[in-house]
Amino acid sequence: CERLEHCQGTNYSFKGSAHKQAGVGNVLIKSSQGQFPITQNVTVVEGGTANMTCRVDYNDNTSLQWSNPAQQTLFFGDKKALRDHRIELVRASWQELTIRISDVSLSDEGQYTCSLFTMPVKTTKAFLTVLGVPGRPEITGFTKPATEGDVITLTCTTSGSKPAANIRWFRNDKEVQGTKEVNATGKSFTVRSSVQFQVDKRDDGVAYTCSVEHVSLSNPYMTTEVLEVHYAPHLEITHSLIIPQEGQYFKLECISIGNPIPEPVLWSKDGGELPDTERMIVEGRELTITTLNKTDNGTYRCEASNDLGTSSAEYILFVYDPNALGQHGPDHALIGGVVAVVVFITLCLIIVLGRYLARHKGTYLTHEAKGAEDAPDADTAIINAEGNHVHAEEKKEYFI
């Protein structure tokens, strides 16, 4: 044969120098050690494109072949063996065989084989992993509107993921825990997560968001359900003046909270209709008295209702005489001055008393007070001390 690499399977004897025989031996060793296919595992998202590459460091013009997990030949060298329009040849040489699989599906996943047709045939495996993209999530289980006190179960569902997707719940911006369920459907998974809670008026307008996370997604898929909760009304009355006086402009507003909105708002005074509709003007939730007088004293009531109930609020109005307030009203400046003087005097007394006690912590009696200075002996001193005890206070001596 003309070339050494074309002489496989045939016994040859070489008649030449030892140097030439050694050279042939080296070539054979390199051929045996270097002829081994090298592949890499590939991961691709469903619907994407996968490139499968097989290389050899050294090849003596032996063909490379790619086979699918079913051991069907895809390409033998540059020759296409399987009729699949999605599979194309990228590069074919003695050192490399690369093929491309387009529009990859979950069924394409598996172990692919690259074969080098030496004697014996050498093979290497490469695993193609196909990621199933989860479908857009859907939230079910909520029918608008809910009524305060109802128990609601929200369920978020996504299908087609591989591996199984992860679902997270958020109440507005705060994460809440859900109950997860995973079911296999062929090679992909259907994932469901549910949250259950009892609604009240604080849930009205709250957004519950389902977030689907998966390795195939750069950003999570999200869907949101905004709750609508109906609840009974609650009313409060606000007023424009702290001390209403005759002749002033005065306004009452009935603040109503409820869903549906409680309306209309009805105003009354002392259990009856408003007595002076010329001065007492009702505009929606507001009651305005243009000029206050003493006849406006009384209990004002606003009332409103919706489908779930009725609520009311009351305000007792007392109109002050501005002249009487000026004559008999308390002189706040005078009161403040008196309080300041009392506090100052009290502090001065505490300081003086403290200094006095600090300087007079104790007393003692001298020998002169006890009469011991005139006693010839101890017994007489004791007797004198007892006799002169009544004069002790006169000779008491203080120390600092």
Secondary structure: elements and pairs:
Elements: H1 18-34, E1 42-45, E2 50-55, E3 64-67, E4 73-76, E5 79-80, E6 87-92, E7 96-101, E8 110-116, E9 122-131, E10 138-140, E11 146-147, E12 151-161, E13 166-171, E14 174-176, E15 179-185, E16 188-198, E17 207-213, E18 221-226, E19 229-239, E20 250-259, E21 266-269, E22 280-283, E23 286-289, E24 298-306, E25 309-317, H2 322-328, H3 332-359, E26 363-365, H4 367-370, H5 378-387, E27 396-398
Parallel strand pairs: 1-9, 11-19
Antiparallel strand pairs: 2-7, 3-4, 3-8, 4-5, 6-7, 8-9, 10-12, 12-16, 13-14, 13-17, 15-16, 17-18, 19-20, 20-23, 21-24, 22-23, 24-25, 26-27
What descriptive keywords fit this protein?
six-stranded mixed β-sheet, Immunoglobulin-like, membrane, 5 helices, 16% helix, 400 residues, disordered C terminus, 27 strands, signal, immunoglobulin domain, Cell adhesion molecule 2b, disordered N terminus, CD80_C2-set
What is this structure, in a nutshell?
The protein is α+β, with helices and mostly antiparallel strands. Helix content is 16%, strand content 40%. Its main location: membrane.
- Give the structural class: alpha+beta
The major β-sheet equals: 6 strands, mixed
Shape: elongated
* Tally of DSSP helical segments: 5
Poorly predicted runs of 5 or more residues? 1-33, 364-370, 389-400
Cα-based radius of gyration, to the nearest Å: 51 Å
**Extended strand count:** 27
Q: Tell me the CATH topology of the domain at 37-131.
A: Immunoglobulin-like
Strand order of the largest sheet: 1-9-8-3-4-5
The CATH homologous superfamily name of the domain at 37-131 equals Immunoglobulins
Amino-to-carboxy terminus distance: 133 Å
The quaternary structure here is: single chain
CATH architecture descriptor of the domain at 37-131: Sandwich
CATH top level of the domain at 37-131 is: Mainly Beta
Tell me, rounded to a whole number, the average pLDDT.
Answer: 83
- Helix percent band: 10-25%
Q: Beta-strand level of the residues, as a percent range?
A: 35-45%
Family: Belongs to the nectin family.
Membrane topology: Single-pass type I membrane protein
Subcellular location: Membrane
Keywords: Disulfide bond, Immunoglobulin domain, Membrane, Repeat, Signal, Transmembrane, Transmembrane helix
